[in-house]
UniProtKB/TrEMBL annotation:
<keyword id="KW-0134">Cell wall</keyword>
<feature type="domain" description="Pectinesterase catalytic">
    <location>
        <begin position="66"/>
        <end position="351"/>
    </location>
</feature>
<dbReference type="GO" id="GO:0042545">
    <property type="term" value="P:cell wall modification"/>
</dbReference>
<feature type="signal peptide">
    <location>
        <begin position="1"/>
        <end position="21"/>
    </location>
</feature>
<dbReference type="InterPro" id="IPR000070">
    <property type="entry name" value="Pectinesterase_cat"/>
</dbReference>
<keyword id="KW-0964">Secreted</keyword>
<dbReference type="Pfam" id="PF01095">
    <property type="entry name" value="Pectinesterase"/>
</dbReference>
<keyword id="KW-0378">Hydrolase</keyword>
<comment type="pathway">
    <text>Glycan metabolism; pectin degradation; 2-dehydro-3-deoxy-D-gluconate from pectin: step 1/5.</text>
</comment>
<dbReference type="GO" id="GO:0030599">
    <property type="term" value="F:pectinesterase activity"/>
</dbReference>
<dbReference type="InterPro" id="IPR011050">
    <property type="entry name" value="Pectin_lyase_fold/virulence"/>
</dbReference>
<feature type="active site">
    <location>
        <position position="218"/>
    </location>
</feature>
<protein>
    <recommendedName>
        <fullName>Pectinesterase</fullName>
        <ecNumber>3.1.1.11</ecNumber>
    </recommendedName>
</protein>
<keyword id="KW-0732">Signal</keyword>
<dbReference type="GO" id="GO:0045490">
    <property type="term" value="P:pectin catabolic process"/>
</dbReference>
<dbReference type="InterPro" id="IPR033131">
    <property type="entry name" value="Pectinesterase_Asp_AS"/>
</dbReference>
<comment type="similarity">
    <text>Belongs to the pectinesterase family.</text>
</comment>
Length: 361
């Protein structure tokens, strides 16, 4: 009976892996192993049909490519025109290949246009730029690129808001580069540039991998449930202080931001890893290199001491001059491995049902 029980346990474990993929395998502590870990856990669609969303499998099996080139040699000269050509209710993967150059457009991918990929050449990334501000559009709608549809992918792009840096005097000077509101969306190898509110990581499950993100205040904000892997978070000095993450959780839901094997660069010594913009934010940094840009306290309750007991701000395995535990805010947590593990697996973003390797052409 003991042998039968052991065999049954093995079979159940194998079945669980088949259903869940390798969601529960934690990211290795050695950064040099990250890409091999990712490739082992995020397999191509033809190897994972049984675990992926059926609609996603169908979309990937009938993909089409359209091109945008400023020299007129593509299907379109403007990204907006290419996006507009995607039908409402789209059910197939549409890869919009964007040629090199600077595209001055405010781009919106409507919620009805699922399965859209914006793809640039990794050796000649196109720049998507616009100067929208909160005064003109409202903060979340000021973004140069607004990806509102599910199953969106961006790869090898420079996404920029060209509005000037807020000076503390102009009202509505916040200016987002990217708003990502669709569920099950991924951003690979992109540079995302702005000042205040650079990324509106709005809602849904998201992955950011191998990205460069810069800003001043709240330059990653919103209600998303997002995993940031191997990304550089660059702090631009600001006289009024700087904040990386303003996550907007207000209840016991599952949203939050996890930064794993990231690098924080910049200077100034007055940057908070996160602030309690809302009452129950959840932000975790794991195996992250922190420069002297980070303030000793590390975290801010946003002058709301009543939120000290409701925030979830955590650190595990971080290093560098900005990662010192001495002087850290008392409401922040130094996590154990078991406490940190849920935030360094693909299960945090439910990756087994939707996450695919970076696209290639």
């Amino acid at each position: 009976m003991a042998v039968k029980a052991a065999i049954l346990t093995i079979l159940l474990a194998a079945a669980t892996t088949a259903v869940m993929g390798n969601d529960y395998n934690a990211v290795p502590p050695n950064k040099s192993q990250l890409n091999s870990w990712f490739n082992q856990n995020v397999r191509p669609v033809n190897e994972r049909k049984s675990t992926l969303d059926p609609a996603l499998v169908k979309a990937e099996q009938s993909r089409r490519v359209i091109t945008v080139r400023q020299d007129g040699k593509g299907n379109f000269k403007r990204i907006t025109d290419a996006v507009n050509s995607v039908p409402s209710g789209n059910s197939r993967r549409v890869i919009i290949y964007i040629g090199p150059g600077e595209y001055r457009e405010k781009i919106t991918i409507d919620r009805t246009k699922k399965f859209v990929t914006l793809y640039g050449n990794p050796n000649a990334k196109p720049t998507l730029t616009y100067g929208g501000t909160a005064a003109q559009y409202g903060t979340v709608d000021s973004a140069t690129l607004m990806a509102l549809a599910d199953y969106f992918v961006a790869a090898n792009l420079i996404i920029k808001n060209s509005a000037p840096k807020p000076d503390g005097k102009r009202k509505g000077a916040q200016a987002s580069a990217l708003r990502i509101s669709g569920d099950k969306s991924a951003v690979y190898n992109c540079r995302i540039l702005g000042f205040q509110d650079t990324i509106c990581d709005d809602r849904g499950y998201h992955l950011f991998k191998d990205c460069y993100i810069e800003g001043t205040v709240d330059f990653i904000f919103g209600s998303g449930t997002s995993l940031y892997l191997n990304s550089e978070l660059h702090v631009i000095p600001n006289s009024g202080g700087t904040v990386i993450a303003a996550q907007a959780r207000e209840s016991s839901d599952n949203t939050g931001y996890s930064f794993v094997h990231c690098v924080i660069t910049g200077a100034g010594g007055n940057t908070f890893l996160g602030r309690a913009w809302m009452s129950r934010p959840r932000v975790v940094y794991i195996y992250t290199s922190m420069s002297s840009a980070i303030t000793t306290a590390g975290w801010s309750d946003n002058f709301h001491p009543e939120r000290d007991g409701t925030v979830f701000f955590g650190e595990y395995g971080d290093f560098g001059s900005g990662a010192s535990k001495s002087g850290r805010a008392k409401f922040a947590k130094q996590l154990t491995f078991n406490q940190a593990k849920p935030y360094m697996t693909l299960s945090f973003i439910r990756g087994s049902s939707w996450l695919l390797p970076p696209p290639s052409l």
